[in-house]
Protein backbone atom coordinates (compact mmCIF):
# COMPACT_ATOMS: atom_id res chain seq x y z
CA UNK A 1 0.00 0.00 0.00
CA UNK A 2 1.47 3.34 -1.05
CA UNK A 3 1.26 6.36 1.29
CA UNK A 4 -1.44 8.89 0.42
CA UNK A 5 0.25 11.79 2.19
CA UNK A 6 3.73 13.00 3.10
CA UNK A 7 4.72 13.88 6.64
CA UNK A 8 7.76 16.14 6.79
CA UNK A 9 9.63 15.27 10.00
CA UNK A 10 13.18 16.31 9.18
CA UNK A 11 15.20 18.79 11.26
CA UNK A 12 14.65 21.38 8.52
CA UNK A 13 12.67 22.20 6.62
CA UNK A 14 9.92 21.47 9.10
CA UNK A 15 6.12 21.35 8.87
CA UNK A 16 4.54 24.69 7.96
CA UNK A 17 1.25 25.34 9.81
CA UNK A 18 -1.92 25.98 7.82
CA UNK A 19 -2.16 29.49 9.28
CA UNK A 20 1.27 30.36 7.91
CA UNK A 21 0.46 28.89 4.48
CA UNK A 22 -2.78 30.85 4.35
CA UNK A 23 -1.04 34.09 5.31
CA UNK A 24 1.52 33.55 2.57
CA UNK A 25 -1.11 32.78 -0.07
CA UNK A 26 -2.40 36.35 -0.30
CA UNK A 27 -1.32 38.65 -3.13
CA UNK A 28 2.28 39.82 -3.03
CA UNK A 29 2.77 43.30 -1.58
CA UNK A 30 5.06 45.88 -3.09
CA UNK A 31 8.09 45.85 -0.79
CA UNK A 32 8.22 49.68 -0.62
CA UNK A 33 4.52 50.05 0.15
CA UNK A 34 3.11 51.31 3.48
CA UNK A 35 1.28 47.97 3.87
CA UNK A 36 4.48 45.95 3.71
CA UNK A 37 6.36 48.43 5.88
CA UNK A 38 3.76 47.90 8.62
CA UNK A 39 4.02 44.10 8.43
CA UNK A 40 7.81 44.16 8.24
CA UNK A 41 8.17 46.48 11.24
CA UNK A 42 5.74 44.28 13.19
CA UNK A 43 7.79 41.20 12.29
CA UNK A 44 11.01 42.83 13.51
CA UNK A 45 9.39 43.74 16.83
CA UNK A 46 8.11 40.18 17.22
CA UNK A 47 11.59 38.85 16.51
CA UNK A 48 13.03 41.08 19.21
CA UNK A 49 10.56 39.64 21.69
CA UNK A 50 11.43 36.16 20.41
CA UNK A 51 15.13 36.84 21.16
CA UNK A 52 14.21 38.74 24.35
CA UNK A 53 16.15 41.80 23.28
CA UNK A 54 15.77 45.41 22.12
CA UNK A 55 18.93 45.41 20.01
CA UNK A 56 19.12 45.45 16.21
CA UNK A 57 17.56 42.30 14.77
CA UNK A 58 17.64 41.91 11.01
CA UNK A 59 15.86 39.73 8.46
CA UNK A 60 17.89 38.64 5.42
CA UNK A 61 16.57 36.93 2.32
CA UNK A 62 18.84 33.88 2.46
CA UNK A 63 19.18 30.53 4.15
CA UNK A 64 20.72 30.46 7.61
CA UNK A 65 24.11 30.09 5.95
CA UNK A 66 23.64 33.59 4.54
CA UNK A 67 23.46 35.01 8.07
CA UNK A 68 26.51 32.94 9.02
CA UNK A 69 28.43 34.41 6.07
CA UNK A 70 27.21 37.92 6.94
CA UNK A 71 28.58 37.55 10.46
CA UNK A 72 32.02 36.50 9.24
CA UNK A 73 32.22 39.03 6.38
CA UNK A 74 31.03 42.04 8.42
CA UNK A 75 32.51 41.44 11.84
CA UNK A 76 35.93 39.98 11.09
CA UNK A 77 38.81 41.20 8.94
CA UNK A 78 41.29 39.11 6.95
CA UNK A 79 44.07 38.09 9.30
CA UNK A 80 41.84 38.01 12.39
CA UNK A 81 41.75 34.79 14.40
CA UNK A 82 38.64 33.15 15.81
CA UNK A 83 37.94 30.05 17.90
CA UNK A 84 35.78 27.66 15.89
CA UNK A 85 34.07 24.66 17.46
CA UNK A 86 33.89 21.86 14.89
CA UNK A 87 31.76 19.02 16.15
CA UNK A 88 29.61 18.38 13.12
CA UNK A 89 28.60 19.47 9.64
CA UNK A 90 27.70 23.01 10.64
CA UNK A 91 30.68 23.64 12.88
CA UNK A 92 32.69 22.61 9.84
CA UNK A 93 30.78 25.27 7.89
CA UNK A 94 31.96 27.97 10.32
CA UNK A 95 35.52 26.86 9.65
CA UNK A 96 35.02 26.96 5.88
CA UNK A 97 33.45 30.42 6.04
CA UNK A 98 36.35 31.74 8.10
CA UNK A 99 38.84 30.35 5.60
CA UNK A 100 36.88 31.85 2.69
CA UNK A 101 37.18 35.34 4.21
CA UNK A 102 40.77 35.08 5.39
CA UNK A 103 39.95 34.59 9.07
CA UNK A 104 42.31 32.17 10.78
CA UNK A 105 40.32 29.47 12.58
CA UNK A 106 41.61 28.21 15.92
CA UNK A 107 39.80 24.90 15.71
CA UNK A 108 38.47 22.92 18.65
CA UNK A 109 37.90 19.58 16.94
CA UNK A 110 35.35 17.31 18.59
CA UNK A 111 34.28 13.77 17.96
CA UNK A 112 30.85 14.03 16.32
CA UNK A 113 28.33 13.50 19.09
CA UNK A 114 30.39 15.25 21.76
CA UNK A 115 29.64 18.67 23.25
CA UNK A 116 32.38 21.26 23.67
CA UNK A 117 33.84 21.74 27.14
CA UNK A 118 33.58 25.30 28.36
CA UNK A 119 37.12 25.20 29.75
CA UNK A 120 38.42 24.35 26.28
CA UNK A 121 36.92 27.58 24.95
CA UNK A 122 38.61 29.58 27.70
CA UNK A 123 41.95 27.85 27.10
CA UNK A 124 41.79 28.50 23.35
CA UNK A 125 41.18 32.22 23.92
CA UNK A 126 43.97 32.53 26.46
CA UNK A 127 46.48 30.67 24.29
CA UNK A 128 45.64 32.82 21.26
CA UNK A 129 45.59 36.47 22.39
CA UNK A 130 44.72 37.71 18.88
CA UNK A 131 41.38 35.86 18.87
CA UNK A 132 38.51 38.18 17.95
CA UNK A 133 35.60 35.81 18.38
CA UNK A 134 34.12 32.40 19.07
CA UNK A 135 31.93 30.61 16.50
CA UNK A 136 29.67 27.85 17.75
CA UNK A 137 26.38 26.03 17.20
CA UNK A 138 23.95 26.13 20.11
CA UNK A 139 22.57 22.91 18.65
CA UNK A 140 24.65 21.01 16.10
CA UNK A 141 21.90 19.77 13.80
CA UNK A 142 23.98 17.02 12.21
CA UNK A 143 24.60 15.27 15.53
CA UNK A 144 21.75 16.38 17.79
CA UNK A 145 24.20 17.91 20.31
CA UNK A 146 23.43 20.85 22.59
CA UNK A 147 26.32 23.12 23.58
CA UNK A 148 26.23 25.18 26.77
CA UNK A 149 26.30 28.58 25.10
CA UNK A 150 25.12 30.34 28.23
CA UNK A 151 28.30 29.27 30.07
CA UNK A 152 30.44 30.15 27.05
CA UNK A 153 28.88 33.62 26.97
CA UNK A 154 29.98 34.17 30.55
CA UNK A 155 33.55 33.60 29.40
CA UNK A 156 33.52 35.71 26.21
CA UNK A 157 31.80 38.60 27.99
CA UNK A 158 34.97 39.12 30.04
CA UNK A 159 36.98 40.02 26.90
CA UNK A 160 36.48 43.45 25.35
CA UNK A 161 37.46 42.35 21.84
CA UNK A 162 36.06 38.81 21.67
CA UNK A 163 32.51 38.35 20.40
CA UNK A 164 30.40 35.22 20.69
CA UNK A 165 28.68 34.31 17.41
CA UNK A 166 26.07 31.61 17.98
CA UNK A 167 24.28 29.65 15.28
CA UNK A 168 20.92 28.96 16.85
CA UNK A 169 19.21 27.78 13.68
CA UNK A 170 17.90 24.65 15.43
CA UNK A 171 17.87 26.21 18.90
CA UNK A 172 15.79 29.38 18.80
CA UNK A 173 12.15 28.43 19.16
CA UNK A 174 13.17 25.09 20.65
CA UNK A 175 14.65 26.70 23.76
CA UNK A 176 13.72 30.01 25.35
CA UNK A 177 17.04 31.85 24.89
CA UNK A 178 17.39 35.42 26.17
CA UNK A 179 20.31 36.55 24.01
CA UNK A 180 21.25 39.56 26.14
CA UNK A 181 21.23 37.68 29.44
CA UNK A 182 23.29 34.88 27.89
CA UNK A 183 25.87 37.34 26.50
CA UNK A 184 25.37 36.18 22.92
CA UNK A 185 26.82 39.04 20.90
CA UNK A 186 25.58 37.75 17.53
CA UNK A 187 22.59 35.40 17.34
CA UNK A 188 21.57 33.66 14.13
CA UNK A 189 18.56 31.61 13.12
CA UNK A 190 16.60 30.60 10.03
CA UNK A 191 12.95 30.50 9.04
CA UNK A 192 12.71 26.80 8.19
CA UNK A 193 13.21 25.21 11.60
CA UNK A 194 11.33 26.03 14.80
CA UNK A 195 10.08 29.27 13.21
CA UNK A 196 7.73 27.08 11.15
CA UNK A 197 8.14 29.02 7.89
CA UNK A 198 9.44 27.77 4.53
CA UNK A 199 13.16 28.12 3.80
CA UNK A 200 14.42 31.46 2.53
CA UNK A 201 14.81 33.81 5.49
CA UNK A 202 17.71 34.23 7.90
CA UNK A 203 17.71 36.33 11.06
CA UNK A 204 20.75 37.93 12.68
CA UNK A 205 20.71 39.92 15.92
CA UNK A 206 23.70 42.05 17.01
CA UNK A 207 24.52 43.89 20.23
CA UNK A 208 26.58 47.07 20.54
CA UNK A 209 29.81 45.16 21.12
CA UNK A 210 29.43 43.48 17.75
CA UNK A 211 28.10 46.56 15.95
CA UNK A 212 31.26 48.53 16.71
CA UNK A 213 33.03 46.38 14.14
CA UNK A 214 30.74 47.66 11.40
CA UNK A 215 32.53 51.01 11.61
CA UNK A 216 35.65 49.68 9.93
CA UNK A 217 36.15 49.05 6.23
CA UNK A 218 34.58 45.84 5.00
CA UNK A 219 34.46 43.94 1.71
CA UNK A 220 30.77 43.10 1.50
CA UNK A 221 27.81 44.16 -0.65
CA UNK A 222 24.55 42.22 -0.45
CA UNK A 223 25.08 41.17 3.17
CA UNK A 224 26.14 44.67 4.35
CA UNK A 225 24.75 44.66 7.89
CA UNK A 226 25.33 48.38 8.44
CA UNK A 227 23.19 49.12 5.39
CA UNK A 228 20.50 46.71 6.59
CA UNK A 229 20.44 48.24 10.07
CA UNK A 230 19.83 51.66 8.54
CA UNK A 231 17.10 50.46 6.19
CA UNK A 232 15.32 48.03 8.48
CA UNK A 233 14.99 50.68 11.17
CA UNK A 234 12.70 52.43 8.65
CA UNK A 235 10.65 49.30 7.92
CA UNK A 236 12.42 48.43 4.70
CA UNK A 237 15.23 46.21 3.47
CA UNK A 238 18.19 47.33 1.39
CA UNK A 239 17.17 45.03 -1.47
CA UNK A 240 14.02 43.22 -2.56
CA UNK A 241 13.07 40.78 0.22
CA UNK A 242 11.06 37.56 0.10
CA UNK A 243 7.84 39.43 0.78
CA UNK A 244 5.44 36.50 1.19
CA UNK A 245 7.89 34.62 3.40
CA UNK A 246 8.07 37.62 5.73
CA UNK A 247 4.27 37.71 5.89
CA UNK A 248 4.37 33.99 6.78
CA UNK A 249 7.07 34.53 9.39
CA UNK A 250 5.00 37.23 11.03
CA UNK A 251 2.10 34.78 11.33
CA UNK A 252 4.37 32.05 12.73
CA UNK A 253 5.69 34.46 15.36
CA UNK A 254 2.09 35.28 16.30
CA UNK A 255 1.50 31.57 16.89
CA UNK A 256 4.59 31.34 19.09
CA UNK A 257 3.46 34.35 21.11
CA UNK A 258 0.00 32.85 21.55
CA UNK A 259 1.48 29.61 22.89
CA UNK A 260 4.10 31.50 24.92
CA UNK A 261 7.86 31.06 24.55
CA UNK A 262 8.16 29.21 27.85
CA UNK A 263 5.38 26.82 26.83
CA UNK A 264 6.97 26.29 23.41
CA UNK A 265 10.26 25.39 25.09
CA UNK A 266 8.52 23.06 27.52
CA UNK A 267 6.71 21.29 24.66
CA UNK A 268 10.02 20.70 22.92
CA UNK A 269 11.62 19.48 26.15
CA UNK A 270 8.86 16.93 26.74
CA UNK A 271 8.84 15.68 23.14
CA UNK A 272 12.61 15.27 23.26
CA UNK A 273 12.32 13.19 26.45
CA UNK A 274 9.66 11.02 24.80
CA UNK A 275 11.83 10.51 21.72
CA UNK A 276 14.85 9.46 23.77
CA UNK A 277 12.89 7.04 25.91
CA UNK A 278 11.25 5.55 22.83
CA UNK A 279 14.62 5.02 21.16
CA UNK A 280 16.13 3.49 24.30
CA UNK A 281 13.19 1.08 24.53
CA UNK A 282 14.22 -0.23 21.10
CA UNK A 283 17.68 -1.01 22.44
CA UNK A 284 19.21 1.71 20.27
CA UNK A 285 21.87 4.22 21.29
CA UNK A 286 21.79 7.99 21.03
CA UNK A 287 24.69 9.62 19.23
CA UNK A 288 24.79 12.74 21.37
CA UNK A 289 26.24 12.86 24.86
CA UNK A 290 24.21 16.05 25.48
CA UNK A 291 21.04 15.57 23.39
CA UNK A 292 19.31 18.62 21.94
CA UNK A 293 15.57 19.17 22.30
CA UNK A 294 14.85 19.71 18.61
CA UNK A 295 16.38 16.64 17.00
CA UNK A 296 17.40 13.18 18.20
CA UNK A 297 20.30 11.46 16.43
CA UNK A 298 20.27 7.66 16.72
CA UNK A 299 22.99 5.12 15.96
CA UNK A 300 21.87 2.51 13.46
CA UNK A 301 22.14 -1.10 14.71
CA UNK A 302 25.01 -3.23 13.44
CA UNK A 303 24.28 -4.78 10.05
CA UNK A 304 21.61 -2.25 9.03
CA UNK A 305 22.14 0.42 6.40
CA UNK A 306 20.86 3.70 7.77
CA UNK A 307 20.39 5.22 4.33
CA UNK A 308 18.16 2.36 3.27
CA UNK A 309 16.21 2.65 6.52
CA UNK A 310 15.50 6.34 5.90
CA UNK A 311 14.56 5.64 2.25
CA UNK A 312 12.27 2.75 3.18
CA UNK A 313 10.38 4.88 5.72
CA UNK A 314 9.90 7.60 3.11
CA UNK A 315 8.84 5.28 0.29
CA UNK A 316 6.56 2.98 2.28
CA UNK A 317 5.00 5.45 4.71
CA UNK A 318 5.57 8.92 3.24
CA UNK A 319 7.37 9.90 6.42
CA UNK A 320 10.46 11.98 5.75
CA UNK A 321 13.15 11.73 8.41
CA UNK A 322 16.84 12.54 8.05
CA UNK A 323 19.93 10.39 7.78
CA UNK A 324 23.52 11.10 8.72
CA UNK A 325 25.87 13.51 6.99
CA UNK A 326 29.50 13.17 5.86
CA UNK A 327 31.16 10.20 7.57
CA UNK A 328 27.94 9.44 9.50
CA UNK A 329 25.99 8.62 6.33
CA UNK A 330 24.32 5.26 6.79
CA UNK A 331 25.40 5.15 10.44
CA UNK A 332 22.73 7.30 12.08
CA UNK A 333 19.21 8.54 11.49
CA UNK A 334 17.70 11.71 12.90
CA UNK A 335 14.19 12.24 14.24
CA UNK A 336 12.88 15.79 14.38
CA UNK A 337 10.51 17.01 17.07
CA UNK A 338 10.90 20.68 16.25
CA UNK A 339 8.46 23.42 15.35
CA UNK A 340 4.86 22.53 14.49
CA UNK A 341 5.09 19.06 16.01
CA UNK A 342 3.09 17.32 18.72
CA UNK A 343 3.17 13.97 20.49
CA UNK A 344 1.23 12.23 17.71
CA UNK A 345 3.79 13.26 15.10
CA UNK A 346 6.50 11.79 17.29
CA UNK A 347 4.61 8.54 17.89
CA UNK A 348 4.19 8.21 14.12
CA UNK A 349 7.95 8.61 13.64
CA UNK A 350 8.74 5.97 16.24
CA UNK A 351 6.28 3.43 14.86
CA UNK A 352 7.66 3.95 11.35
CA UNK A 353 11.17 3.30 12.68
CA UNK A 354 9.91 0.09 14.29
CA UNK A 355 8.39 -1.11 11.01
CA UNK A 356 11.58 -0.34 9.10
CA UNK A 357 13.88 -2.00 11.61
CA UNK A 358 11.86 -5.21 11.71
CA UNK A 359 11.69 -5.21 7.91
CA UNK A 360 15.50 -5.16 7.92
CA UNK A 361 15.86 -8.00 10.40
CA UNK A 362 16.14 -6.17 13.73
CA UNK A 363 14.05 -8.04 16.31
CA UNK A 364 11.85 -5.95 18.58
CA UNK A 365 8.42 -6.09 20.18
CA UNK A 366 5.99 -4.01 18.13
CA UNK A 367 4.82 -0.89 19.93
CA UNK A 368 7.53 -0.90 22.56
CA UNK A 369 8.94 2.49 21.59
CA UNK A 370 5.48 4.04 21.36
CA UNK A 371 4.56 2.75 24.81
CA UNK A 372 7.78 4.13 26.32
CA UNK A 373 7.15 7.51 24.69
CA UNK A 374 3.51 7.59 25.81
CA UNK A 375 4.43 6.65 29.38
CA UNK A 376 7.01 9.44 29.44
CA UNK A 377 4.50 11.91 28.02
CA UNK A 378 1.86 11.04 30.61
CA UNK A 379 4.35 11.39 33.47
CA UNK A 380 5.63 14.72 32.14
CA UNK A 381 2.31 16.31 31.26
CA UNK A 382 0.02 14.94 33.96
CA UNK A 383 2.70 14.74 36.67
CA UNK A 384 1.68 11.24 37.67
CA UNK A 385 3.08 7.72 37.35
CA UNK A 386 1.77 5.45 34.60
Automatic annotation (TrEMBL):
Keywords: Aminotransferase, Pyridoxal phosphate, Transferase. Its cofactor is pyridoxal 5'-phosphate. Coiled coil: none annotated. This is Class V aminotransferase. PANTHER family: ALANINE--GLYOXYLATE AMINOTRANSFERASE, AMINOTRANSFERASE CLASS V. Signal peptide: none annotated. Substrate binds at residue 334. GO terms for molecular function: alanine-glyoxylate transaminase activity; L-serine-pyruvate transaminase activity. Residues 9-326 form the Aminotransferase class V domain. It holds the Pfam family Aminotran_5. The modification N6-(pyridoxal phosphate)lysine is found at residue 193. GO terms for biological process: glycine biosynthetic process, by transamination of glyoxylate. Belongs to the class-V pyridoxal-phosphate-dependent aminotransferase family. It comes from the Bacteria.
Amino acid sequence: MKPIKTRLLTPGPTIVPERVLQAMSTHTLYHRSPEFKTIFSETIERLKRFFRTERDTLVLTASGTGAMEAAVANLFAPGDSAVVVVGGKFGKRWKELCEAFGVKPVVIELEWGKAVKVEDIKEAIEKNPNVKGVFIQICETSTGVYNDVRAIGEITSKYDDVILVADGITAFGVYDIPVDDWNIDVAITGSQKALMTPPGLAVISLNEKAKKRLERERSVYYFDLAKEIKNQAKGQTAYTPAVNLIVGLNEALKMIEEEGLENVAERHRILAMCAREGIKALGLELLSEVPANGVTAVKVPEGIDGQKLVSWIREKFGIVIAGGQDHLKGKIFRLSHMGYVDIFDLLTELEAVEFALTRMGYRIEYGISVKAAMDTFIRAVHKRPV
